[in-house]
Design brief:
- The complex is a heterodimer of chains A (273) and B (44).
- Chain A is mainly alpha-helical.
- Chain A has helices spanning 10-13, 22-45, 59-86, 89-121, 130-150, 155-166, 169-182, 203-267; strands spanning 192-193, 198-199.
- Chain A is 74% helix and 1% strand.
- Chain B is 68% helix and 0% strand.
- Chain B contains one helix and no strands.
- Chain B is mostly helical and 44 residues long.
- The longest helix of chain B has 30 residues, at 4-33.
- The chains are: A mainly alpha (273), B mainly alpha (44).
- The A-B interface holds A 1, 3, 5-6, 8, 10, 13-21, 23, 35, 39, 42-43, 48, 53-55, 57-58, 61-62, 65, 104, 107-108, 111-112, 115-116, 118-119, 219, 222-223, 226-227, 229-230, 232-234, 236-237, 240 and B 1-4, 6-7, 9-11, 13-15, 17-18, 21-22, 25-26, 28-30, 32-44.
Chain lengths: 273, 44
């Protein structure tokens, strides 16, 4: 569809083309350097773990991926609550963007976990492990949220029903996080205990995991900003298309209305067979 | 490195997935921004 805005070049208006800005460029560059450092630390410089050997290197991407998926769920829930309270498009867009990135990171956590499980447990997946099942449930819940966003309808109704699902996400996150404590599972207990429990790894391995958290968090923020802006653009385009469609229908109605009037005047009042 | 195939596969899934997702998101953003007036896409 060609609109009048196509004729205005971004250079002429000062508006950026796409979803990038100076902030995202600096952030993206920093994250890129960080990825290089993480690859060096995680794959080469950190030592193999005593029991798991080199397979423990998967942990440097698996654990941060899972944690960032949980963070995404909390951001989506916060955005959903704020939307239900304020009815602001900004909060709804934040919830949506965060849910999509959360699904991506949750998929990473499930896939990398499965890859680690194959040589460790002898199988990619077991269905009687609470951690694995609750993680799969969380991924499905996030995919369900995204599917709900795609249901056609009024944007406000869509935002409202998505928000009700969004507020439920943290419950599942707690289930996933606590599953290794509440039930007997094949999955090992948490490597890091944020509430004073300390860490089960040390030195360069702990540092590498910390770098993994920092770098993937930078990537997460970068993605969130871009996805937020993309969702914002999607909403604007949707509104414009709706407005154009309404104008076209009105124009059609005017044409058919004037045609009917002409037909009516031609046959005259009371005219007809 | 032992089990190199598993380790590299896991890392490739994460960084390959991130790269593809980032490229798709940016490409969609560029395509859509052509259809939105400049005053509605002034990012900070």
């Amino acid at each position: 569809m060609t609109t009048a805005t196509n004729e205005t070049t971004p250079a002429a208006t000062g508006a950026p083309r796409g979803t990038g800005s100076t902030t995202t460029r600096v952030l993206g560059l920093t994250a890129l350097v960080g990825v290089g450092v993480l690859v060096g630390l995680g794959l080469f410089w950190s030592p193999p773990e005593e029991v798991q050997g080199d397979l423990a290197r998967i942990m440097y991407v698996h654990v941060p991926s899972a944690s960032l998926a949980y963070l995404s769920c909390f951001v989506t829930a916060a955005g959903s609550v704020m939307y239900l309270w304020k009815r602001s498009e900004w909060w709804d867009t934040l919830a949506y963007a965060s849910a999509e990135i959360g699904a991506l990171f949750m998929a990473f956590a499930c896939i990398t976990g499965s890859i680690w499980a194959r040589p460790t447990w002898g199988t990619f997946w077991v269905w009687d492990d609470a951690r694995l099942v609750t993680s799969a449930m969380l991924l499905l819940l996030l995919l369900g949220y995204l599917a709900l966003r795609k249901v056609p309808g009024d944007p406000d109704v869509r935002a409202k029903r998505s928000a009700w699902l969004g507020v439920l996400l943290p419950i599942n996150v707690v289930l996933v996080r606590q599953s290794v404590e509440w039930w007997r599972t094949l999955h090992q207990k948490a490597t890091l205990q944020p509430l004073g429990g300390g860490a089960k790894i040390e030195d360069l391995m702990l540092f590498s995991l910390f770098v993994g958290f920092v770098v993937l968090t930078l990537v997460w923020v970068w993605l969130l900003i871009h996805r937020f802006r993309l969702a914002w653009l999607e909403r604007r385009v949707e509104e414009r298309e709706l407005s154009v469609a309404i104008d076209e229908r009105r124009a059609e109605a005017r044409v058919s209305g004037s045609g009917a009037a002409r037909f009516g005047s031609a046959i005259g009042p009371g005219g007809g067979p | 490195m032992h089990d190199a195939g598993y380790v590299i596969a896991a890392w490739a899934v994460v960084f390959g997935g991130l790269l593809v997702y980032a490229l798709v998101t940016m490409a969609r953003g560029r395509r859509l921004s052509d259809r939105v007036p400049p005053e509605e896409r002034r990012w900070m």
